[in-house]
Write a structure and sequence with these properties.
The complex is a heterodimer of chains A (216) and B (476). Chain A has one domain. Chain A is 75% helix and 0% strand. Chain A contains nine helices and no strands. By secondary structure, chain B is mainly β. Chain B has one domain: YVTN repeat-like/Quinoprotein amine dehydrogenase (Methylamine Dehydrogenase, Chain H, 7 Propeller). The radius of gyration of chain B is 20 Å and the shape is globular. The chains are: A mainly alpha (216), B mainly beta (476).
Chain lengths: 216, 476
């Protein structure tokens, strides 16, 4: 992957991380409930693992597929999917449903996995992944074992998901600590921009971009 | 009425009436309007939502400034709630960009549910959806809907009766956006049959329910045989909010009949709450109990007792004559958002009491106001020649704790037993000293008489939220 692609993954990670719904607000709530900054920090790894799992599944599938299929097919099909899902999220006002706040680390991981998946976090990485060339130079494919190309492709996808998630959790941790330690929750009333709407709009744009790149 | 009438629209920034913590909510601006449910006992006129002006700077302060009729007769509007509240900021499923704009109104007698939109003209809310009793019965298996709370994953509405049976009563969940009935909430209810009120300790995954009676036990009035037989509810139920299962039942003792209003502490770091008991059948006293966490269980303790007041039999309605006393009848309580002041309505004696509950185990009485009452008939100071009936009943406290609103009707058939001359509606407003405690009736605020068009008034909801409308996920 190129430096530009890594940068894009990091930027998307930061975008996911800054969204209160993706976990930092939950980390702050757990810290406030126990009046302990350690509780804030301890919530972050399970949230990161859940997000990673959600994103990695999509990333591995996309990368593995694009390593054996023409990349533009993945771009077009995936891009179309993304536009559709983004439009659905823009137009439907259903919010993620979950009751229950006292979660173990495993449950918190599960919560993060579900909330990331419901928001289509992995899909948003699609254009970055779909444009990643397979790691084998063209022409060498016929010398490889049948399953190797997709396997290598999947590994590339996992690496991408890892980079993305590291960026996300770093931003999440920063948001959580700043709000918990310094600015307080009053900031939410003014600064909690409707990320979900923006998020859906980004999906539509990213999907369209993906199709455009694939067709061009 | 269909979906098309419901505006599904999200905001770019959170609804300004949502607050992360009770401490933040206490700094909310004063309410400009109050919504009051009003019903016609004779069921000849439609019930209504009455809108009152609560802005002291306004010319129409303390007057009825809006009125929305229901489309049917005989609903008996009672309690009601908002489509969304501060719980929308809770971190597990935040949705802070929805609007607090719809009132969800159950008809306690008809079992119909109505959705009113307050957005376009807050003084004249518009009916946008009607959910017939049959939908509640068929989809959730309940009837006689009562309390409404904006929950984490939907709107929770509890009900006294079964859909086509006496019981069990329980909780139905409505969709947050379409208001469609999604189904019954409970997965395992154990031996719970009776229902009345519910609320929760959100951050602890605890839901609490109380007990009154099934429809046949309450709709024809209080049944002396059932009461003296100690058949009305006397227990509290604690549930796992996430798993939807009953985890613990606490019995207050069957002499304590009717455990009604539940007021958990607003601060999510606290895990206690208050419940009012209407009457003790051994001495007609009323009481308030505290529930609190003890290890992995909840325990209860009686923290307030209000004694019956002796009276001559000829001054009493038939239902009380054998006892020669006025029962205080604690039928509503309300806890200020800062969890410091508890208001207790003694509807029989016509008294509103204020307690400092900073130490919840040892409430200290700090104020008392008398209005109406079975024998007192105490008038409002601004209308000294008009003896009042009914008594302070539903209590609502503003978010800053500085204003308290009371209305005087309990429940149609019960009104008639304790006030046989027929409860005539009135509302009063009380100013609060939030530093030292103490209550003063506001001489300028007393909607009553013809202004209420002969309807009886029950619950009040304040514009933007009040002490019994919102739940919070963050400690202050």
């Amino acid at each position: 992957m190129s430096g530009g692609q890594y940068l894009a993954l990091v930027a998307l990670g930061a975008f996911h991380g800054v969204n209160p719904a993706m976990g930092w607000l939950f980390a702050v709530a757990r810290g406030m409930q126990e009046r302990s900054i350690r509780m804030v920090l301890r919530a972050l790894p399970p949230i990161a693992v859940g997000h990673l799992a959600s994103v990695a599944i999509v990333a591995a599938v996309v990368s593995a597929t694009s390593s054996v299929t023409a990349a533009n097919v993945v771009g077009i099909v995936g891009g179309g999917l993304l536009v559709g899902y983004g439009l659905y999220r823009l137009l439907s006002e259903r919010h993620f449903r979950w009751a229950g706040m006292r979660l173990s680390a495993v449950q918190l991981t599960g919560w993060s996995f579900l909330v990331s998946s419901a928001h289509g976090a992995g899909l948003m990485l699609l254009p970055v992944l779909a444009t990643t060339p397979t790691s084998m130079p063209a022409g060498h494919h016929e010398h490889m074992m049948g399953a190797s190309a997709p396997a290598t492709g999947a590994l590339t996808g996992l690496a991408a998901a890892g980079v993305h998630t590291l960026a996300m959790v770093a931003v999440q941790g920063l948001c959580a600590l700043i709000v918990y330690q310094f600015v307080g929750l009053g900031i939410l009333r003014r600064a909690w921009f409707n990320v979900d709407r923006l998020w859906a709009a980004v999906m539509v744009a990213v999907g369209a971009l993906s199709v455009t790149i694939a067709v061009a | 009425m269909n979906r098309a009438n419901i505006t599904v629209m999200t905001r770019w920034t959170p609804d300004p009436t949502f607050y992360a913590s009770p401490q933040a909510a206490a700094s909310a601006p004063a309410e400009k309007l109050a919504y009051v449910s009003a019903f016609d006992r004779s069921a000849e006129k439609p019930d209504a939502i009455v809108v009152l002006d609560t802005d002291p700077a306004s010319e129409s302060y303390g007057r009825v400034v809006g009125w929305t009729d229901m489309p049917n007769l005989g609903d008996e509007l009672h309690h009601f709630g908002w489509n969304a509240c501060s719980s929308a900021l809770c971190p597990t499923a935040p949705h802070p960009h929805v609007e607090r704009r719809y009132l969800v109104l159950p008809g306690l007698r008809s079992s119909n549910l109505y959705i009113l939109d307050t957005h376009d003209d807050p003084r004249n809310p518009r009916l946008v959806k009607e959910i017939p009793a049959s939908e509640l019965a068929d989809k959730a298996g309940y009837s006689r809907p009562h309390t409404v709370h904006c929950g984490p994953d939907g709107i929770y509405v509890n009900a006294l009766g079964g859909g086509h049976t006496e019981g069990p009563g329980g909780i139905a969940v409505l969709d947050h956006t379409t208001f469609e009935v999604r189904g019954a909430w409970e997965k395992d209810r154990g031996d719970q049959v009776l229902a009345y009120d519910f609320w929760w300790h959100f951050t602890r995954d605890v839901l609490v329910t109380s007990e009154w009676g099934t429809p046949s036990m309450v709709e024809e009035g209080v049944n002396a045989e059932l009461l003296l037989g100690r058949k009305y509810g006397h227990r509290l139920h604690f549930w796992d909010l996430a798993k939807r299962t009953l985890t613990q039942t606490v019995d207050l003792g069957d002499e304590n009949q009717m455990t009604l209003e539940l007021r958990p502490a607003h601060d999510p770091a606290k895990e206690y709450g208050f419940v009012g008991v209407v009457t003790n059948v051994e001495n007609l006293s009323a009481s308030v109990w505290l529930w609190y966490r003890e290890g992995d269980k909840f325990a209860v303790k009686k923290v307030i007792t209000i004694d019956a007041e002796p009276a001559d039999a000829e001054d009493l309605p038939p239902v009380l004559q054998p006892f020669g006393a006025v029962a205080p009848l604690v039928t509503d309580i309300d806890l200020s958002v800062d969890d410091k002041w508890l208001y207790v309505s003694a509807w029989g004696t016509g008294e509103l009491l204020q307690f400092d509950v900073t130490d919840p185990f040892n409430p200290v009485k700090t104020g008392s106001i008398r209005l109406g009452g079975i024998t007192g008939r105490v008038p409002h100071p601004s209308f000294p020649d008009e003896p009042l009936n009914g008594g302070p009943q539903m209590v609502e406290v503003s978010r800053d704790g500085k204003r308290v609103y009371v209305s005087n009707s309990l429940y149609g058939s019960w009104d008639d037993q304790f006030y046989p001359d027929g409860v005539k509606g009135w509302l009063a407003k009380i100013d609060i000293d939030t530093e030292k405690g103490g209550m003063t009736l506001d001489p300028r605020f007393f909607p009553h008489g013809d202004e209420l068009r002969g309807l009886r008034v029950h619950q009040t909801r304040l514009q933007g939220g009040d002490a019994s409308s919102d739940s919070y996920c963050f400690p202050g």
